[in-house]
Write a structure and sequence with these properties.
seven-stranded mixed β-sheet; six-stranded mixed β-sheet; alpha+beta; 415 residues; 24% strand; 12 helices
Length: 415
Amino acid sequence: MTDQQRPPPDALVVGAGPAGIVCALDLSRSGLRVELLEASDGVGGRMRTDRKDGFLLDRGFQVFNTAYPQVKRRLALRRLRLRPFTPGLIARTSRGQMRITDPTRRPGEAASLLPGRVLSARDLTALAALTARDALLPAGTLKSRPDRTTSAALIRAGLSPRAVEDLLRPFLSGVFLEDELETSARFFHLVWRSMVRGTLCLPAEGIGAVPAQLAACLPDGTLRLGTPVAAVTDSGVLLEDGSERPAPTVVVATDGPTAARLLPGLPVPDGRTVTTYYHATDTSPLAEPTLLVDSSLAVLNTCVLTEVTPTYAPPGTALVSTSVLDGDPPGRHEAVRGRLAELYGTDTSAWTPIATYTVKHALPAMAPPWPLSRTTRFAADRYVCGDHRATGSVQGALASGTRAAREVLADLARR
C-alpha cells in the first residue's frame, strides 16, 4: 500500500526503539491511528540482537533487570526465558582476585565477605548500610535527595578509597560507561536499588527479544520498517525518499543526536561510547555466569555469555563478551585479548574473533543535577522521548515513551 492509499494517521512516531514502541502502543490503545516509522530493518534501536553462524550477538553487552517498574508492567517475563547472572562479581585488582556475592541470595558464600577477605569491616558496614537504604527507602525519597556525583555519594556513604578503586569504580564504570564516577548519584541510587531488588539476566533469544515482544502488541499496519525520516515539517514528516507523510502530531523517539537533527534547537546531553568484542573458544574460561571486572580499567567487564544462557552459541562453543570504553582504534583488539589472558588466567591466542560492535551514544552522560524525567513537549504538536530525556536504561526509555503518549493525549483532550 502506498502512502497515498494509506489513511492519514493521527500521530507519527519516529523511531522503533523501546520508547517509540511503547509510545505508539499507548496512543493506539487510546484510539488514535498511529504509524511507527523506523529507518532500519528491525525494532529495538540499541536493543538488538544479530544472528551470525549460530551465535546470538547483542549490539553491545547488555543485561536485563527484572526490577524496573516499566519492565514488570509491560513485559511477559516468563516468555523471555530469562537466565540469571551470578548475584555478585569477580574483580581482578592489584591485590589479586576478589569475589563479592549478595549474601541474601547466596548464604553459602557469605564467608567470602568476612572482614579483610575483600573489604574491611568498616567498608562492609558502609556498603551494607548504603544497600539497605537504597533497597528499603521509597523510590520517591531517593529521587528527591540533593544530587551530586556518584563518586561523592560513595565517599559520603563512608566507603574507603580502596573499596571504590578495587570494586565499585570498576563495576560502575561498566554501568555508566564512564570511569570518573561523575554520573548523577540520584541515578546511581535508583540503579543500585533495582539491582538489589531484581535479577540481572539475559533472554534466551538475546536482548532483542525484549523490544520484539513489545512490538508484537502493535496493531497491524502500525510499524513501517526501512522508512528513514529526513525532517520534521509543519505538516508531518519528510521521508528520505522525498515523499511526505502528513500527521497533526509527531513524536520523535530516536537517539539524542538524531532527535537534535530532526528538532533543531533541542538540547541533548553528550553520549557515552562503548565497544564490545565477541570471541569464541572451545572451552569456557570461567565455568560460571559471573561478571568479571578489571580494576585497571583496561576493560570494563567481561563474561562468558554461554554460561548465562547456552543459546548464545552453537553447542560445544563458549562465547565471551568483553567491553571497553570508547572506540576500536588500531591495536586495541590485540591489547584486549592480552588483558583477557591475564584476567582469565588462560591462553587466548587461539580465541576466534566473532564480531566487534562500537556503539556511539550508547548512554547519555548524566551529570548532576540530572532530571530523572522531563517533559516530552518540544513545540505545538511536536514531542520527543527516549532515554536521553529520562535515564540511560530500559526503564528510562520506556518511562519516557509512556510520558510522551500521556502528554500527547492530555494535549488532545484539552482541545
